[in-house]
Amino acid sequence: MAAYLSRLHHISLQVSNVDKVAHELVSRFQFNVFAARRTDRAKQLALRRGSAVFVVNERPSLSDCGAVRDHRDAGCVFGTHEHYPVDTVSNVCFEVTDVPSASRALRDQDGCEFLQPPAELQDDRGRVTFSIVRSPVGNVCHTLIDSSRYQGPFLPGFREVSSGCQGADRSRCPITHFDHITYACPRSSTVHITNWYRRNFGFQRFFIDRNEDVDEGYVLNHDGIGLRLTAMEYWKCSESGIKLPFKDEKEPDCKFVIAESLPEQGRNQVDTFLDEHRGAGIQHIGLYTEDIVKTAQTLSQAGVQFFSPPPAYYTEVGKQQEMLDAGYDPQTLSRYGILLDTDIQTDTDRQTTDGQRHLLQVFTKPVFAEDTFFLELIERRGATGFGEGNIRALWRSVQAYMENGEHQERQSNNQLSKQR
Q: Which domain of life is it from (predicted)?
């Protein structure tokens, strides 16, 4: 029996410099700090944009690491139990309706390791119940939490922070939720990972493309691209009564994507992530926006840098007309590196119906010192998957960065920092 999830509660970043990363998320990516927890051992800041919540944690030093911390230390709930050598995204936290019941269901499954059995945290605003399990992906763990009995600004131990003038208003930066999370994983690990999530959390396969092979996933293996993508999603318990951060919000859908490199096309960005991250982990997170042009403009003015696709992308036969037909100015999309893919809607007989679906995406450059984790802006105008044209262009834009001088310069600067 699987432990079914209600919603994605928050995602934890484990970093060496909390203030620096939080400042980047506020000043550039327009998140707002809304709660903080500070002790003599740790500093934790909770940041929000729409229902997308990041918790930035100070990662433990070698002298402070251990297999499992005391569960009364909230750091073990929102971060990781172990020292990790580089900044990383370590914890994807899910809300569930009954933590003890969910944990019992997971104990009955093979291959589910608990880092923390069910426990409670409380303060003067109430209590939460939680447990923590290790995922099959690198250093990623999952906290299962029931916060229905807590009335504070976030979770026990966190105090409210006045937003003041942080971030941008919703009209200038309409990011609403996490759209997807992408794992970068070693070759031939996808089947094990998807089976683990299906067995333990009831995840179901989500097909990136209608012609995708059930067993092989979505494969691009030519023209310098060697990539296998497999997507999955969890059943949300929309009738569970779980409270959302904003009362007028709908339950957002978040997909999980597993990315593997293929050996035939040589070394690439997935291999680079695995090397610099010291193993599998979260490569990027998609932030859903209701207006990608306005959001990219706002973030660009704040200093965010985006990957640029090859210039030929915007002059491909039919691409400019495709953008115009979708209501976009090609020069504007080119200015921010935004990609557009059109998916013609079909019925069960594969006959074209009225209307088209559009998908718009752009990647930011890495958030951390290493070339590991980055963010993505994504707008879906009826499209639910990930368009092949966008995948190709995104791959090439990141690959071009990895092969140019900027990537090498970042690596050199990072090595100098470590030596100091």
A: Eukaryota
Q: Which amino acid is at 56?
A: V
Which residue, chain included where needed, has tokens 């998320």? Answer: 25
Instruction: Give the containing element (helix H, strand E) for 335.
Output: helix 330-336
First-to-final CA distance of the chain? 51
How far lies 370's CA from each of 286, 297, 402, in Å? Answer: 19, 25, 12
The helix/strand/coil state of 121 is: strand
CA geometry: angle 369, 34, 22, nearest 5 deg:
10
CB atoms within 10 A of CB 321: 10
Residue whose pair of structure tokens reads 């499954």 in the numeric block? 109
The whole-angstrom separation of Cα 64 and Cα 220 is 43
pLDDT tens across 223-233, in order? 778 899 999 99
Dist. CA 11–CA 178, nearest whole Å: 10
CB 327 within 8 A of CB 293: no
Q: What is the percent of the chain with per-residue pLDDT over 70, rounded to a whole number?
A: 81
Task: Burial-class residue 133 by CB neighbours within 10 Å (0-12, 13-18, 19+).
Answer: buried
Confidence of residue 305 (pLDDT cuts 50, 70, 90): very high
Q: What is the pLDDT of residues 30-56, one digit of tens each?
A: 999 999 998 877 789 999 999 999 999
Return the number of other C-beta atoms located less than 10 Å from residue 412's C-beta: 10
